Amino acid sequence: MNRRRARLILILLVIASTCSVLFSLAVGSVALTPVEVWAALFGQAENEGHNLAREVVCNLRLPRALSAFACGGLLALAGALMQVLLRNPLADPYVLGISGGAAVGALAAMLLGVGASFGLGAAAFAGALIAMGLVFGLARGDGSWTQTRLLLTGVIVASGCGAAVALMLSLAPEQQLRGMLFWLMGDAGEATAPMPAMLILAAGLAIALFFSRELNLLTRGPVLAATLGANVSRLRLMLYFLASLLTATAVTSVGSIGFVGLVVPHLARLALGNDQRLLLPAATLAGGALLTLADTLARSVVAPQQLPVGVLTALIGVPVFLFLLVRAPRLEHP
Length: 334
Known about the structure:
By secondary structure, this protein is an all-alpha fold. Helices cover about 75% and strands about 0% of the residues.
């Protein structure tokens, strides 16, 4: 791809990401102008109106917007890495059961009374690792696995996780049930500490970019990648743990959200090609912007009532993915 075009697309994605966060800060039941948002972020409080704007922006909207952006980036990055690992454009944490495993772990921790965010995160990470281990272990069969077997096994594991979630919901106390249901459909309203997700996103992207050359080789097949010097076993293990960590962090922060990790890497690949050095940061930025906008709509369309953000991402993701299938019936290998 032309470097100038690639640089322009990345710059536009940075601008779109920034605008999505600023739009999220301005829109809501209390509408604010760009000047008021800027004053709330960087200005001095001069009167009661400025104090109200600062309270709304800094304590309510900014943590939620940053959490939504981080989790959208986490899911898109995890999806892009899973598509490289499996060499299948239909792979993503939701389809392969990783999101379901993380949700099972987090809900089990909730039922056991674990209230600390670290405890929920550890339980979600453990659930994601177990789900991914089941997918790869069961798909191996006679000692080898194919992309088709992995996807089918992932669908089965995801169904099992869904059944486990339904069982836990049926056993949950009534006072916890509504919150658990809303969280399962995606809810950024309780995400008040965005920094852990932002740091994990930055670290995950840095690690993925460090291995971008090997990832480009892996997209051509494991045999060719090994021939050209890539440590395929180490690379697969790294992708295994990194995708699980990214997914578990997102699920812990905003709940189970689908289609971001599936559709966003496709769109980034159409715009930039298959070079992972460009695709990974582009998918991260686009996923963050998409989820931030979706969360803004979720809390403002029928305000003061809030919609689950996962419902909006599905409403956006389904027609986009069907459009991609119609335009390219034979989806290109990542």
